[in-house]
Amino acid sequence: MKHLPFLVHLFFLLCLGLSLTTRCAGDVQFIFSGFTGANLTLDGVAAVTAGGMLELTNGTLQRKGHAFYPAPVPLRGAAGPNATTTTAVESFSTSFVFGVMSDHVGLSAHGMAFVVAASRDFSSALPSGYLGLLNVTSDGDTGNRLLAVELDTMQNDEFRDINGNHVGIDINSLHSLRSYSAGYYNDDDNNNGFRNLTLISGEAMQVWVDYDRETTRIAVAKPKRPLVSARYNLSTLLKDVAYIGFSAATGGTLRSRHYVLGWSFGLGRPAPAIDITKLPKLPRTVSKDRSRILQITLPLATAAFLLTVGAAVFMLVQRNRRYSELLEDWEIEFGPHRFLYKDLFHATEGFKNSCILGIGGFGKVYRGVLPMSKSEIAVKRVSHGSRQGMKQFIAEIALVASNTATLCNYLAIVSAEVNFS
Ligand SMILES: *[C@@H]1O[C@H](CO)[C@@H](O)[C@H](O)[C@H]1NC(C)=O
Ligand SMILES: *[C@@H]1O[C@H](CO)[C@@H](O)[C@H](O)[C@H]1NC(C)=O
Ligand SMILES: *[C@@H]1O[C@H](CO)[C@@H](O)[C@H](O)[C@H]1NC(C)=O
Ligand SMILES: *[C@@H]1O[C@H](CO)[C@@H](O)[C@H](O)[C@H]1NC(C)=O
Ligand SMILES: *[C@@H]1O[C@H](CO)[C@@H](O)[C@H](O)[C@H]1NC(C)=O
Ligand SMILES: *[C@@H]1O[C@H](CO)[C@@H](O)[C@H](O)[C@H]1NC(C)=O
Fold it and tell me: In what residue span(s) does the Protein kinase domain sit (predicted)?
């Protein structure tokens, strides 16, 4: 037990209020204590390491990785001539032990998810905040037939994430149906007893996901009290068979790795208990020295980069039909570099989707041409007030500046908006 200092107790109860003819569930039950010889279906950068860990992402930026149980799971019981689509999705239960590592302490990267999906083709899904599950156009589409339990390590304003360390129940969209700050309720504490956990701590944590077809309640936590709960009729979402597995993605800035150490599943029965002493051990990747170097060089590198490429920083505050501007604290430090929102708006043709260069951790990057100087620019839209995001962005500029010259043809512009809603 010593090598698993923290266990997240997340319990996910999905229940369906349908009483139907008892039928024999397709006999799917498995347990993997390590994944050597597991024959999972892998794609992207996912791989099974020599030590038997399922490595969903390997530290390379802007990548996604998926791993699925090789056979589709007959969710509505045994498929056959008498199986009908009106049959309720069978109860299931799963548990897994995972770990997310970041190269830089305190700076989060993107998360991962347990997935139940109609298809295991995620080739057009995006990495970063989309977790390798969806893309700009497919997010929210009811045709996705996707249930995901996200272990999200970054706050994405576009998905209205509650913070940069949460567990969410996602139906067809990364805008979670319900989410809660990562942690668990300790059974031994009689008064509430909530304990925080940091998903990106690099520690192994265990999650339980249970679905019970007797009610329509969705809940996350373990052992007794759910961390997150909601109601959703899964029979309307999933077809007769579905693929079960994991998805993870990295962003464009910070190197992170996502691992699964053990996984069990039961259809119509409890998932077998995972013996955590038999699992492979997570690598210790967090280098304290490295993070200290980053902290020291960051302000310098950022300033140097800002000067070199002439970065412009801009933020819009719309109030009483007038434009007034706020100086951010980091801006005071580096001096204001501003363009008018109007100019950026025109440069990117009104932040048109066709101008999107890429999607970063917390905002979209648009290509544009400044009307006056005809300079080519890249504009990143972030929310004013997203301190985490700004910190991340500054870090991103610093890393880009120190690693590559790819941005040198562009001006880096931060366009921050105030959300009044
Ligand atoms: C769940 O969905 C199924 C299929 O659409 C429907 O037959 C059933 O009544 C729904 N159950 C509840 C409790 O709403
Ligand atoms: C991650 O995997 C990809 C594809 O398998 C490979 O090209 C890349 O070099 C790997 N990155 C690291 C850091 O190992
Ligand atoms: C691995 O899974 C595939 C299906 O994805 C199956 O065809 C193959 O027989 C399996 N191999 C072994 C060794 O189980
Ligand atoms: C399908 O249902 C019919 C009538 O209820 C029954 O006779 C038959 O054995 C069933 N077939 C299968 C494969 O279960
Ligand atoms: C988004 O994903 C959907 C479904 O996977 C795909 O059909 C569509 O082409 C993708 N859109 C983009 C812009 O890649
Ligand atoms: C747990 O984390 C939340 C959100 O970060 C914070 O508001 C709360 O104070 C923390 N609780 C404890 C006991 O640390």
Answer: 351-421
